[in-house]
Automatic annotation (TrEMBL):
Designated name of the protein: Ribose transport system substrate-binding protein
Residues of the signal peptide: 1-23
Family: Belongs to the bacterial solute-binding protein 2 family.
Source organism per UniProt: Saccharothrix ecbatanensis
GO cellular component labels: cell envelope
Amino acid sequence: MSRNRTARAGVIVAILATGVALTACTGNTPETTTQTGSQGGVKVANDEPGKKVVIGFSAPAADHGWMAAISAAAKAEAEKYSDVELKVVEGTNDVSLQISQVETFINDKVDAIVLLPFDGAALTPVALKAMKAGITVINVDRAFDSPFAARSTVLGDNYGMGVSAGTYVCEKLDGKSDAVVAEIAGIDSLPLTQDRSKGFADALRECGLKVNNRVAAEFTVESGEKAAANLLQAAPRVDAIWNHDDDQGIGVSAAIKNSGRGEFFLIGGAGSANVMREIKADNGLHKATVVYPSTQGADGIRLARLAVQGKSLGDLVEVEVPRQIELFAPVVTKDNVDRYLPTAFES
């Protein structure tokens, strides 16, 4: 490993430590004991019942495993608190309908809205309207265009996913300067896909590798199978493949099986339970996956409750909840899979 990569690894470890601390406070599995923290020198019992908080929750349609897990975790989190009333609307990929859902929350005068927008830019105006009406908006996963549209934002680290995947490839192919690396991306027009690809390329560059073959899919099983089949046909030899999304990875795996190929190893993306079980069994091509936390909706519920009740994150000295939380993108291997499997989503 180069000196630059060693230094970068140190930075990533530091970020991981911070990410773990934040996730411990906002994850969807709180400790059974009361969580307390320092808020301006005063002890705060974050999980003790307080002022009732009515939260509206809206997200895209649960048309794949990760999105289904987002909504399920949000509902489960709300049920843990006797002082939270959650109003959930049907998931939709229709921007106009989602805007209408938020308008309804505003008219109902809810205390907070946890919103994973189908399109962050399109939902920005109605989120601004909610904030101006005195409603606490927590933005999840897809950022709004205006910093005034949300009290707090919970994001996954898309660029960090690419860095984590690329760093893992570098470590596995250490010293193999002629290695052929392939990438199966998601929807190329989305900024999140672009960020993942940039992080992957940047990390590979650190060890003298590059993406030799790249195709894009659409985060679906069918598109994953088609994209992987095209990739394998175009590349007679591959040493490593990073697939951005474990849901589309079901199709990727089907295409690989049909091809009869297996000279490479696979790195998944997002962190599905089925991929983690394969990693744990160590009997397939998947040797790792990079987590894109499906706890973000649950984190949003927790932050909304804390913000409305005037509480802070228990492990921070700051007396307010943070403006933004970016969750870490760890690599899951057979060595640490047991830690991540309990919160993994089913594809």
